[in-house]
């Protein structure tokens, strides 16, 4: 459920910026939730294992395969956050040496499962999963590049949204300290 929720919110966000069809950015009229993106992600998350199981694969194998590919996504995101955090703190003039140390240690710890997933080379089909993940990343990068060429303001619009969220976060933090 957590993966579906995160995936739906990412799909919702990229729909808002028209990186994918904007209909996935529609919200439920009453609940104001990203209902369309939740439905699309739920359908995808249901169909993939159903298709794999329909080809006579064991449920436990399908679970392991999909979980492994998803784990590469989590690890990739954690690495990006580990790199981005000191950069963000530097821009906010709040970077401390301990933040750099924590980021470096965290990066090192993240290398353990990353390297362990590719060396020694795992048996089939697990040896293919890093390439499948990298393929999805490449497809996403190409798609984003194409969308960016169609909309030269795309990055500026995303940055504006991120800045707005950042300002809201700062206001929420300040208001919680007042109480």
TrEMBL record:
<feature type="transmembrane region" description="Helical">
    <location>
        <begin position="101"/>
        <end position="122"/>
    </location>
</feature>
<keyword id="KW-0812">Transmembrane</keyword>
<keyword id="KW-1133">Transmembrane helix</keyword>
<dbReference type="InterPro" id="IPR050367">
    <property type="entry name" value="APC_superfamily"/>
</dbReference>
<protein>
    <recommendedName>
        <fullName>Amino acid permease</fullName>
    </recommendedName>
</protein>
<feature type="transmembrane region" description="Helical">
    <location>
        <begin position="35"/>
        <end position="56"/>
    </location>
</feature>
<feature type="transmembrane region" description="Helical">
    <location>
        <begin position="62"/>
        <end position="89"/>
    </location>
</feature>
<feature type="transmembrane region" description="Helical">
    <location>
        <begin position="128"/>
        <end position="146"/>
    </location>
</feature>
<keyword id="KW-0472">Membrane</keyword>
